[in-house]
Structure formats: structure tokens, C-alpha cells
Amino acid sequence: MSMSSHATPSGAPVSPKKALSIGFLLLENFTLISLASAIEPLRMANQLAGSELYRWYTLTLDGEPVSASDGLRVTPDVSIRTPLSLDMVIVCGGVAPHRSVQREHVTWLQGQARLSRRLGAICTGSWALAKSGLLDDYEVSTHWECMAAMREAFPRVGLTTRLFSIDRDRATCSGGTAPLDMMLTLIRCDHGRELAAGISEMFICERVRSDQDQQRIPLRHVLGTNQPKLLEIVALMESNLEEPIGLDELASYVGVSRRQLERLFQKNLHCSPSRYYLKLRLTRARQLLKQTAMSIIEVASACGFVSTPHFSKCYREFFGIPPRDERIGHLNPPVRLEQREAEALFRQAAFQAVPEEPVSSAIVALDQARGEPTYASVAVRP
């Protein structure tokens, strides 16, 4: 059933029920692409629904402009001292978050938590929440470049390599365009699959990644530069997935013995070279199943498996489901119970009346979208 919209005295449409209000706290040197990837899905949700489902504000400590990591100066809507009826606060981090987070950030975020506001972070913004003691015993995603430092500084935070994590009243995300996937997941659970699919089409997004998708962490970042032979071997493996190279041949390519090869992998990667090679091939297979229309036989062949039954057996043992179910699940991804509960918390934030709340740019954007052919083109579930 379509959701009707009304108009303010200025002619801007508003939703029949109060929009979910999100504040984006900008740290110095935040990444602009992550901020845009988080806000744009909200804008498009409003446009396609033809009503204000979401509103957003950008905040800084003092209301003064801050620099993004690319040097662009961004003027926020308000300072953190401005009273806002927020349902969620998302911290936007970027370069060197340990230098950007100040005592005032910590105090304000702790205050938001006491008000039962939902909390989130994109890119390295999770550093601010962790420093505020607000991520202890939560499952957390952050940009892979920040992961080692966070693990050292905040041992009680449950860091994961996943693109994003929704755990109870926390939603954290890695960097780049991953916030787009997290916000689409939340929008889908808030307002239905059709709206999320419509947003994806508008942004030419062929596949919405789930919270089970992993960040691709460069091995060089994990190992440093102290293991050049191991890095060379892994590079050879990655370049030869369709026709795997034997371990003896790999060892001879880099001038080590088979025994030395085994020791290198066990010491640094905590598995055998054959197991690591298999992991690379199966991970590639998973990408092909999710992102292409290749048949399972073709995927098996492209990843170096001589028979489909052997491929299916290895795939099931590694990922816990057979390739066929992986593809079916991609076409109709389930929402896990704990994810539903977490996203329900996202929607159930308490609203508090505050005087003279600033106008959100969401209303301006929605008003400008009234002439677009896609305006109010998606029926949003109540």
C-alpha cells in the first residue's frame, strides 16, 4: 500500500509518521566516500517513497567546518551542543582516528548512550565509540587498516573482518562503499525489499553485500615486509586458481624446500599451504556464485576443481552450505533472527521533543526530488 505524503507550509513533503532521525558526527579527516555512501541511500529512500522516512544532520564539536581526508572542507548542520531529537548517532571516521577523537567527543557519545540512542560507526569511527567504552563485548566492524591498532587498544571489543556488523543497538561498518550495503540492509528490514531494490537500481548497485561478506585484507598488511617469500608464494597461488600449482613446484619457484614452505605457512598463517590454497579457490568460487550467472560446473572448473561433486563437498565443508544453496540464498537472502532483533532496536528509538529543531537537509532534498520520474514510485510497507 502506498504511503501518502503531506506538505509543510514551505511545500516540502513530510511523512505521515515521524521520520527516523540520524546524526552523523564528523571527525577530523573523515572519509567523504563513506559519509556519502551512508547518507545517499537515506535520500533515495525518501525520494522513492515520496515521503520523509529518514532525516539526517551532520555534527561537529563546535559547528565549525572540518576537513575530509581528501582535503575538502565540510560545513556541518549543527554542533554537538545543539539539542536534537536523534534516534541514532553514526560516527564518521577516517585517517588517524586516535588523533581525531577528543575528550568532548567521548563525553558527548557517552551522553547519547545514556539517552538510549542507537550508536553506529563507519570507516574508523568505531575508534571513537570504543574509546568511549561503548563497544565492549559487542561485535564490531572497522576498516581493516585500523583493526590491529584497535585490537591492541581495546581488547574487550569483538572485532570482526566482516564488512559490517549489526549487534543489538550497535551498527558498525568498514570503509569505502560498505556503508551503502549496511544502510540498504537496514532500509530493507525497515521498509521492505522492494524499496531497497529500488535504491540499488538507482545507484547501479548490482549486488547488496551482506554482513557475512568479508573485507579483503591485503596479506602484506597482515605480515608486514618480513616474509617476502611467503608473499611471493601467495601471489603465485592467487594468480593460478583455475590451474593450481603443485606445492613442490611452488617451493621451487621461490627457492625453498617443501618442508620450509610448510613451516612458513604454519608459523605465519596457522594452516598448511594446501589448506590456504583451497581457501583462496573456494573464496573465489563464492564470489562467482554470488556475482555471476555461471553454472556450478563452470564455477568449479574456473576454481581448479576437476569434478563438481568434489567441489560441492569441499564447499560444504568450508562454508557450511552447498554451492546450490549459496546461490539460492543470494537470490533471496534470509534475515537472521538476531539481525531482525538488532534492526528492530534501530527502529524503536525513543523520540524526545526539543524546541526549534534545525531543518534537516533531507526535507530540502525530498522537495527537490518531487519532479523526478521515480518520485513516490515504490509502495512502502507500513
TrEMBL record:
Domain of life: Bacteria
Record keywords: DNA-binding, Transcription, Transcription regulation
InterPro entries assigned: Class_I_gatase-like, DJ-1/PfpI, Homeodomain-like_sf, HTH_AraC, HTH_AraC-typ_CS, INH-QAR
SUPFAM superfamilies: Class I glutamine amidotransferase-like, Homeodomain-like
Occurrences of domain HTH araC/xylS-type (ranges): 231-329
Pfam families: DJ-1_PfpI, HTH_18
UniProt-recorded Gene Ontology molecular function terms: DNA-binding transcription factor activity; sequence-specific DNA binding
CDD domains reported in the protein's UniProt record: GATase1_AraC_ArgR_like
Name listed for the protein in its UniProt record: Transcriptional regulator, AraC family with amidase-like domain
Lineage: Bacteria, Pseudomonadati, Pseudomonadota, Gammaproteobacteria, Oceanospirillales
